[in-house]
Amino acid sequence: MLFRRCRLKRAPRQKILCRFCAMMGKLQSKLKHSTYKYSSPDAIIEEGIQTRAFQEDSPAHTDTVSVVAALDSDLCVSGGKDKTVVAYNWKTGNVVKKFKGHEREITKVKLAFFLEQIACVRKSKQLFSASRDRTVLMWDLHGSPQPRQQFSGHAMVVTGLAVSPDSSQLCTGSRDNTLLLWDVGTGQCVERASVSRNLVTHLCWVPREPYVLQTSEDKTIRLWDSRGLQVAHLFPTKQHIQTYCEVSEDGHKCVSCSSGFGGEGCEATLWDLRQTRNRICEYKGHFQTVASCVFLPRALAWTPVIATSSHDCKVKIWNQDTGACLFTLSLDGSGPLTSLAVGDTISLLCASFSRGIHLLRVDHNQGLELQEVAVF
To answer: What is the dihedral of CA 68, 52, 59, 132, to 10 degrees?
Structure first.
């Protein structure tokens, strides 16, 4: 068999370099118009996880931020280990007001819902804060920096705080296994309930209903009827501590979070609050305790979605119906993420252990891609 040797004609070295430069020029031109055109040089994009550089604004707290909640389209309120409650304009990056009165770390913050319903009192927005000092204080955003009312009655740290839809009642929960129902106007306790081993982790009032949802360290989720403060329903026991709960705006569904480590537990669970009250879906993918979960506005996506934040330094967006993870944002270097809140239709606020509060923005041009735009 004969083998014929083929001789390839080589192009001159200069022409090869010219072709290479032309190819790289076209590639750079494509990259400038790619889906990652907003990425900074410090951005890292790998396997759907994105870490972005962010802008430093005036810090809201001098220590760990325990909790953050949205007040309106540009204001949020937060509490931290520095014992202060801070109202912050997250659009301008400025502290609006600081409230000092607690003797220990702030654990929960809440605003009065009726302020959004009665136009004549919109200028007297009221805030509630719970603390490890076993008290709850009520503040006026536009009034005196001193607390307007104090609610004292728990024997241990207050870990649950919920305000009724008409803002006339306040429900508090504690690691002392008790729930207390208060008259906001008088500051008096009107109902008290205690369940053995019911170490409360979070409370949430169901919109337009007399019910309060509660998570506990005994791995259960309870639905309380505020009319007499009796347990109306006990959801199936989970495998891990339930750390947080949130109710949808229509009051039909709720989502709870689980503790865990190494991917064991670490999930969020969607429940039906109506007739069946069964588990609807689970969201698994975090590797440490899930500390917070929120329903995202319907205007944000083509399908209902929820977001979770975890001690693994990640914020995840999930398809509410299928449980598929749609996007993951990594906030490495921030320590455990402690709290999550919806700022507006495109913004999320995320509190962290060591880097304050992160402002996250959803890029509509990129689907549900989260971008970190500021930290304060």
So the answer is: 40
- pTM for the model: 0.82
With beta carbons less than 8 A apart as the criterion, state whether 359 and 74 touch. Answer: no
Closest CA to 315 of 297, 327, 323: 327
- Kindly state whether residues 63 and 166 are assigned to the same domain: no
| Amino acid in position 102 | H
**Sequence-ordered strand ranges (E) for 101-199:** 106-111, 126-131, 135-140, 149-152, 158-163, 169-174, 178-183, 189-194
190 φψ region: left (φ > 0), alpha (ψ -120 to 50), beta (else): alpha
User: If we measure between CA atoms, which residue out of 340, 320, 321 comes closest to residue 329?
Assistant: 340
Kindly state the greatest CA–CA separation across the chain. Answer: 106
Q: What is the pLDDT of residues 203-254, one digit of tens each?
A: 999 999 999 999 999 999 999 999 999 999 999 999 999 999 999 999 999 9
Asked whether residue 43 is domain-assigned, the answer is no
Q: Which domain holds residue 166?
A: 101-234
Whole-number Å distance between alpha carbons of 138 and 225: 23
**Residue 21 is assigned to a structural domain of this protein:** no
